[in-house]
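Notes taken during the Thursday session

The instructor put the following on the board and asked us to keep it in front of us for the whole hour. The protein is Group II intron reverse transcriptase/maturase. We were told not to look anything up and to reason only from what is written here. First, the residues (330 in total):
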Amino acid sequence: MTFTSLAHLLNREYLMQCHHQLPNRKAAGVNGTTKHTYEQNLEENIEDLVSRMKRKGYRPSPAKRVYIPKDEKGKKRPLGIPEHEDKIVQKGMAPILNAIYENDFLDCSFGFRPQRNCHDALKVLNVYIERRYVNDIVDVDIKGFFDSVDHKWMMEFLRERIVDPSFLRIIARFLKGGYMEQAKHYKTENGTPQGNLISPILANVYLHYVLDLWFEQHVKKRIKGQAYLVRYADDFVCCFQYHEDAHAFYDALKLRLNKFNLEVAEDKTKIIPFGRFAEENHKKAGKGNPPTFDFLGFTHYCGKSKKGKFRVKRKTSKKKIASKLKQTNQ
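Then, after some discussion, the predicted structure tokens were revealed:
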């Protein structure tokens, strides 16, 4: 089913409500408009916004580019801070997109979805490794995902369910809005800025078509054993019963991502033996303890319960501890 008329939902009352729902004292965009200054002429501002949207004259301002610390090596993560007016529109669009796509999204995806958080992802991963036939883990990292989203493919995916040109035009303008850094305007040919209120749902839509559906409908049918996927935003782990299946998937994944202008970060991606037989097999081969992997801030390792049964155990990842200690010292 496709939705032909959505833009009319962004009416005066709804956008007024979105304005009040936005948090106070948040960083302002390029024009420096805060929630407090915007609501001094709130009714006029909202009326003007609605009339511009109706006559297709609404154009989002470029996002303000700021950087936040990414890891202990001093790398920075770019964020895009939209103008307050753009935040209102995005705040209105995100629930509409969620309402449509929550019916489509698969159970393997957890990030930025209602009532599906990190803890749920970790619980499901535990069940797969402890209670299913899992012997190999493919721990994948997509290189600069939010900066690499292909706008043409993004719009193509959205048209699968939404055919309202006015609604799609607003999303396209957000994607093409660019950003300001040190008083210079930069165009954006790819990517969706982290910090935008609709970026998480757009990222989920993109990976739903690129990864989730492909894994469910294509990968699972072409391998010998069992396979499971757990994805949180652009961070995901795949579990396989057979070693050759894991390697075949990894080779196919690189080709699949390349098709949609995405790339695997080779230095952060690995295939490791992990599961109930990993410890035993490693000791037989004289290799000591089996390797570990990091997912959602935790290092996962093979352990045993008090009764001697296999358990997936977790400890806070060294990177996270190091960055928190550094912050505390500062």
